[in-house]
Write a structure and sequence with these properties.
With 210 residues, this protein is an alpha/beta fold. It is built from 8 helices and 8 strands. The chain is 39% helix and 14% strand.
């Protein structure tokens, strides 16, 4: 499973999804792309939005469309606050367990609500044919640093350590605005952002020029 791999995804795994963006380094300076998966949900996402305002940074939210359907006002609030949004499928399905046709139907159904050209596959799993079909309509955005904030066996300090150890110029970093991850995320994410700012990184949204 991908979650058991190193927090920085190894090169051999990146080669399984040709054309995907794993990292977007700036030519000059140091850039970071902060991203959140699986929301929006009312128990966590509003807190994240308020905290990002306090920290003065923008992020990209890869949204599950069924959550967008349930809480459309919260989805609109993400955009109103100046953040980018992306497609994370309608039902948070994994490509390995679905045929290309049913997977693409789910993705396109999500697009009807999210309207973004950026797509991130749940768990990073895609079949080769799914990758080809997706690339016709979307830019596939993966990640360079997996914080593993969803892992109940990790402490917030360990999640923060993953960021400090693996972040580099152009890293796409993944946190989760989900109930499962919130215990670690609420403590580790603000500390990680402040550390990155102190290290001289500037935060960009997916789609911003590096």
């Amino acid at each position: 499973m991908l979650e058991r791999l190193l927090c920085r995804v190894p090169m051999w795994y990146r080669m399984l999804v040709p054309g995907a963006r794993w990292r977007i380094p700036a030519i000059s300076g140091r850039s970071i792309y902060l991203t959140f998966d699986d929301g929006p949900i009312p128990e966590v996402t509003p807190w994240v939005l308020d905290e990002l305002d306090r920290l003065g940074v923008k992020a990209t939210f890869f949204c599950v469309a069924d959550n967008v359907r349930k809480w459309p006002e919260l989805f609109e609030e993400i955009k109103r606050r100046g953040h980018q949004v992306g497609n994370h499928t309608y039902h948070h399905i994994q490509g390995l367990y679905h045929g290309t046709r049913s997977y693409m139907e789910d993705v396109h159904a999500a697009h009807e609500l999210i309207h973004s050209r950026y797509f991130r596959p749940p768990h990073g799993h895609l079949r080769f044919r799914q990758n080809i079909e997706l690339s016709h309509s979307f830019e596939i955005i993966m990640w360079d640093v997996v914080t593993r904030d969803y892992n109940a066996r990790l402490t917030p300090e360990e999640v923060l350590s993953n960021v400090k150890r693996y972040a580099r110029n152009g890293s796409i970093i993944v946190f989760h605005d989900s109930i499962k991850a919130q215990k670690n995320m609420r403590e580790a994410m603000p500390r990680a952002v402040r550390w990155l700012l102190d290290e001289g990184y500037h935060f960009l949204r997916i789609g911003d020029a590096p």
